[in-house]
Design a protein that fits this description.
single chain, 317 residues, alpha+beta, TATA-Binding Protein, Endonuclease III, domain 1, 3 domains, two-stranded antiparallel ribbon, 12% strand, globular, DNA-binding
Amino acid sequence: MTTSENGTVTANSVFLPVGYVDIESTLDGGQAFRWWAEETSSNDTVVGAYRGIVGRRALRVVEADGGLIVTPVDGKDANGLSHSMIEYLGQDQDLDGFRTKFADDPCLGPALRGYSGLRVLRQDPWECLFSFITSSTSNIPRIKLNVGSAAEHLGYLVGPNPRDVTFPEPEVIAEAGEQFLRDLGFGFRAKYLVPAAEAVASGQLKLTDLREAPYAEARHELVGLYGVGEKVADCVLAFSLDKPESFIVDRHILRALHKWYDLPDKASLTYAADWARDYFGHHSALANQYMFHRERLARRASEWGGAHVKRALSEDE
DNA sequence: GTCCAGGGTGAAA
DNA sequence: TTTCACCCTGGA
C-alpha cells in the first residue's frame, strides 16, 4: 500500500514522472479509441480516471501532480508497466521545443495555454492502422464502438471487465473475414480491413520496420494499402510510427488552417498537408493535434450555444 | 417519424 | 480535378 502526493491511496500503483498529462484530451481525443472514462474513489474524493489497454496490460490512469498514476487492473504487478506506458505517452517527442516555438502563435498559443497536457501518443501500429481505416466517414463514438466490439469479440481477455482485452492480431482479423466485420457494424470499411490484416499477417507489410524508414517512404507503403489514403496514412505515421513531421488534414483541420494561417484559398487537402509539414516541420504532429483539439472544442461550444445563438450569429459565417 | 453529419477512399466522369 | 457511392449510428 502506497500513498501518493495527492492523497490517492492505492495498492500496487506506479507514479510516472512524465509531467502534466491531460488524460481526457490525450487518451479520448481522437487518437486512440479504446480508453473509457471511469470514476475511481480514493478516500473521500472522486477522481477522473481512464481505463484501457497498453500492450497486453489492462490498466487505469489517473492524473497526478507532475505525472500520472498507473494502476494495473489485471491483478498483476505494477512493475513492468512503467516502461511501456512512458513509451506509449510519446516521451521522446520535442514537446518543450514545440511549446517554446509556438507560444505566440495565434492558433497554437491559446491552445497550449488551454490544455498544455495534450500529448501525441505512440500506439501499437497495427491497432492504429485498423482504427484509422475504420475512421473513414465515421465519428469518434462510432469508431470507439466498432474498434471496441472487434476487440471484445476477437481479442484476448486480460482483465476482469469485458473491455479489458488485447487488440486482435492481424491473423485473427484476417481469419474472421469481411462478413464478420460487417455484422459487427463496420459497414463498407470491412472490405478494406481484411486485406490490410492479410498484408500485415503475411509479413508483406512490416509495420514496425516503418518506424525506421523515412517519412515519405513509410507513407508510400501505407498508401499502397486498399482503403488507406493520405489522411489515414498520416494518422498512423503520427500516432504509431515515430513520424513527428506528419500532418493530418481533414475537413476540420483545413478550416483551421484557413482561419489562422495564410493558406491559399483553393488549397487541396494534399496541398494543405504539404504546406503544413513545411511550416511546422518536426512539430507537425503536435501542432496538428493541438489545432484539432481547439477546433473540436470550438465546434462543441457552438453546438452548446444552441439554436438561438446560431441564429444571432447567422449573418457571419 | 425523418434528416443529417461524422478525424475518407476508390473509381468514374 | 470534381463527383459519387459506400454502411451505419447517434443526435437534432
